[in-house]
Structure formats: C-alpha cells, structure tokens
C-alpha cells in the first residue's frame, strides 16, 4: 500500500487514472494520491479505483507556512481520508493555489532578471494542474543548457529557502491551521517524510511540538535514499532513520504511514517502492473514524 503519490494534478507525470492502472499492474491493494495543495485528482482516482478494486484514500500534501521561531520550516503535511468535497477545504486550497501561481510568476521574474532564459508562458505550458518549482526547473534546465550542472544546483542557487528566487507565498497555512482544516474535513493529519527536513534544527522536538497541536501521524517508510537530502543513503542507515521515527511515533501515539513519493518520470522511484502494511493501514482507518467523531462534537 503506497499512500504517497503525486499525479499530473501537481508535479507528477501520470494522471490519476494512469496511476490506478499502474497500481493494479503492481498488485497494490490501496493507494493515496497526495498532490501538493490540491485534491483535484482524487475524484478521478477514486472512480478508477472502484472499477479495479483498489482502495483509493482521498488525500492531500499541504506545504506549510514557515515559522522559524517554532522550527516549523518547509514542512509538508499529509491529510488522509479527507472529505475531498469539503467546501471549506476546497476554498482554502483554491486560495493556496492562487497564491502559488502568483508566487511562481514572481520566481520566474527573478530568474529572468538574473539573465536566465525562462518565460511564464513556457512554465505554465508544462503545468497540468497546480504549478510547483519542479515545473520552473524543467523549463530552466531545458532552456539554459550548461548553466547548471543539475536540477539540484539550480534549486540550491535559486529555488530553495534562501535561494535568490525563493519568495514567500502571500497565502499559506501555519501547521496549526493546516491540522485544523484537515481535521475539520474529517482527515488524519500526518507529517510527511520527517527525516527530510534539513532546515529544521531539532526534528524530534519539532515533532513533539506538532503532536501537542494535534498532529496524529508520522510517515515512516519513505524513499529517503532517492530524495533530498539523503540521496544514496545506505540500507543500514535508512533502517536506523526509520527505526528512530517509528519509536517516536509509538511514544507519542502517532499513526504510522508509508509511501513512495512517486512522481512518475524524471524521478528514479517506482510506484509502491515504499509503503505500509495492512495492519498499519487499518490503524490509520480507525484513526480516521475517530477524527470524524471529533469533528462532529
Ligand atoms: P513547490 O511545490 O513549488 O514548493 O516545490 C516543491 C517540490 O520541489 C518538491 O515536492 C520537490 O519535488 C521539489 N524540490 C524542492 N526542493 C528541491 C531541491 N532542492 N532539489 C530538487 N527538487 C526539489
Ligand atoms: Fe513534488
Ligand atoms: Fe513532500
Ligand atoms: Zn510528496
């Protein structure tokens, strides 16, 4: 079961329907499309899943507003079993997407002012849903051969926090607000890839603070070895990392989830490469029905 997948509705390269088809071919029993700041792909995936007996969990991966004083920096919050038709959730996601569009345009302008060949039109022509920095990176790499040794270098110089073209979004949710929005939409808020936050000073203390304000889960199994900042992490070190978060999740009574962060082509990750087992999946489900009762009270 792979509960962390991106589709063309954000920065993935396969449509929700194609992902369900891939999942069927791989024999996965349950999946979640967890696109960045959008639930646009959920309905299509749920419908396709029903046809092929694959359980599709309605999900989203929210990009959280930085609060450096709380050590909440560049966090991603997953929401599982959300009501993807929840009106308030959709209103807020629409505002976030508008702010993203406006932010990407500003980022492209900074790149242009610095002599990089890239246009707003071309970037948005490769976007099929919600725009993200990978779309800008794709065009910059294509248009400026030799300027950057790799996408990583482009991110480091321009797009990452502190980079020359890093700009804030005019609207985004704090961690507390995002947790509340997800819970109100009947979802379980889960911190994505806790081992990937290299801008957070003390990850364990940060997770404890997040739990105090309502975080309910921690993503454990994750393709750290295929992602920043742990590319090429050895299997033994990976085990150590996962074990550390597993112990913390147990201590704090957080549900444990897992997923591949599959984005399709352009990233060397396979669908279902990482995930969760049946028991963990049932625990997440139980937690989601508990959340639903919380919301009604
Ligand atoms: P955005 O949605 O615009 O905030 O972009 C976030 C996406 O950019 C992440 O999901 C990653 O796929 C990608 N990303 C972020 N930082 C880096 C980096 N340093 N190198 C490569 N890709 C990155
Ligand atoms: Fe992404
Ligand atoms: Fe993420
Ligand atoms: Zn992701």
Characterization of this structure:
The chain is α/β, with parallel strands linked by helices and 297 residues long. 44% of the residues lie in helices and 12% in strands. It contains 10 helices and 7 strands. The protein has helices at residues 16-26, 42-51, 87-113, 120-126, 133-143, 151-159, 175-184, 203-212, 235-252, 278-296; strands at 2-5, 30-33, 55-63, 76-80, 188-191, 217-221, 255-258. α1 (16-26) runs parallel beside α2 (42-51). The two termini are 31 Å apart. The model has no long low-confidence stretch (mean pLDDT 96). It binds adenosine monophosphate, fe (iii) ion (FE) (2 copies) and zinc ion. Adenosine monophosphate (AMP) binds at residues 11, 36, 63, 132-134, 151-152, 155, 160, 228. Residues 61, 76, 192-193 line the site of one fe (iii) ion.
What does this entry show, briefly?
The protein has helices at residues 16-26, 42-51, 87-113, 120-126, 133-143, 151-159, 175-184, 203-212, 235-252, 278-296; strands at residues 2-5, 30-33, 55-63, 76-80, 188-191, 217-221, 255-258. Helices cover 44% and strands 12% of the residues.
């Amino acid at each position: 079961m792979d509960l962390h997948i991106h589709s063309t509705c954000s920065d993935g390269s396969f449509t929700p329907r194609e992902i369900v088809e891939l999942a069927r071919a791989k024999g996965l029993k349950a999946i979640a499309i967890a696109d960045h700041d959008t639930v646009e792909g959920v309905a299509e995936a749920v419908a396709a899943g029903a046809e092929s007996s694959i359980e599709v969990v309605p999900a989203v991966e929210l990009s959280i507003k930085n609060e450096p004083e709380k050590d909440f920096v560049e966090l991603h919050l997953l929401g599982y079993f959300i009501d993807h038709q929840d009106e308030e959730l959709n209103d807020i996601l629409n505002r976030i997407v508008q702010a993203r569009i406006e932010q990407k345009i500003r980022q492209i302008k900074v790149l242009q002012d610095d002599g990089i060949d890239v246009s707003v039109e071309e970037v948005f022509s490769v976007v099929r849903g919600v725009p993200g920095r990978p779309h800008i990176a794709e065009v910059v790499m294509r248009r400026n051969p030799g300027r950057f040794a790799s996408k990583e270098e482009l991110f480091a110089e321009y797009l990452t926090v502190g980079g020359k073209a890093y700009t804030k979004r005019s609207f985004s949710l704090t961690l507390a607000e995002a947790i509340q929005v997800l819970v109100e939409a009947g979802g379980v808020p889960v911190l994505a890839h806790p081992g990937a936050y290299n801008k957070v000073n003390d990850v364990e203390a940060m997770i404890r603070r997040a739990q105090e304000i309502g975080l309910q889960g921690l993503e454990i199994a994750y393709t750290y070895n295929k992602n920043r900042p742990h590319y090429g992490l050895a299997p033994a070190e990976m085990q150590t990392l996962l074990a550390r978060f597993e112990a913390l999740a147990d201590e704090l009574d957080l549900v444990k989830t897992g997923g591949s962060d599959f984005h399709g082509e352009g990233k060397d990750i396979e669908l279902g490469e990482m995930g969760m087992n049946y028991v963990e999946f049932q625990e997440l489900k139980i937690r989601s029905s508990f959340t639903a009762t919380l919301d009604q009270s």
